[in-house]
Amino acid sequence: MKNETASLPAVHPPVRVSLSRFVGYFLWLGTVGFGGPIALAGHMQQDLVGKRRWVSKDDYVEGLALAQLAPGPLAAQLAIYLGYIRAGVLGATAVGVAFVLPSFLMVLALSAAYVRFGGLPWMQGMFYGIGAAVIGIIARSAVKLTKLTLGKDKLLWGIFAVLAISTAWTSQEIIWLFLLGGVVALLVKAFPSRVQARSTMSLLFTPGVLGIFGVSSTLLQIFFYFAKAGMFVFGSGLAVVPFLYGGVVQGHHWLTDHQFVDAVAVAMITPGPVVITVAFIGYLVAGVAGATAAALGIFLPVYLVVILLAPSYKRWAKNPQLNAFVRGVTAAATGAIAGAVVVLARRSVYDLPTIVICAVSLAILFRWKVPEPILIACAAVAGLVLRSA
Known about the structure:
Order of helices and strands: HHHHEHHHHHHEHHHHHHH
Strand order of the largest sheet: 1-2
Largest sheet: 2 strands, parallel
Radius of gyration: 21 Å
Structural class: mainly alpha
């Protein structure tokens, strides 16, 4: 009898709450939620499914699976899906805005401070230490993602190795290699159907279309560039880093190497989705309008994927061809993150103090569960002390 009582919450329908309270939760999570996509998804499960019972377990699991299968930052996609389940397009829109807005405003404030004080010694000293710590954080994330996504699958490890080496060697995003990784996994693991062939072609077509339209003005260029980048973010927001480095630093020359590392650092010290780093980049290029265009570009594909696919999601979620393609792309993205660690380390870890800061940060992350903002704050202090010494 005791066990039956304990299992009742799992079978009861979710508790109905007003849309404003539901959206308010995501506004709160976007304001205080640190730790990356896995941590944010865990908060949603604990709070919405476990404690408050506002979302059913089945809806949460389906949303998490969709976020893992479809392109886009995982936490934002899961939040938007839960909003869609709660109140359709209105719910998805309100939740998406509430979840992203706090970190966007924080990044705007940090961007303005960076532009105003970035040339001052104390600001340079802070980011001297922060940049080295960020390399350790990205390296730790790459290791975690590798364990999570590759397992003992030799094919996925092969795709991972190709992307890691190519990214480290060329310092550029190679979109066709990502797609090739998905196609290879599809061909080896599941015979492709005509439906999946069309899906693959649509992915190939999208970046080309975005590139054509992205040249009409600076803001449109920013918007479509980040929309293209958003189409190749699978699981972790850090998957976008290799793409952004090649395009932002080497392609468009919007940022210098050190400014790019600083942009990643800003994303690490703010709550919410990691890909909010694009707002910092947009701000440096074209002020508030550029930050807004970049944020809209990176999140709009996520939003559209959810509202377009959610109604028919259950029909295609278990498709073996689609799952094989996504696993291949995810392995490629993980390899690109590993390669990006090498690329970024060349710019941020270049003398004995930065080597020590990076190594200590990495050791702490492997040994203890220290929140990343605290680690970055300590690195900032270390940078200030070392630069002033």
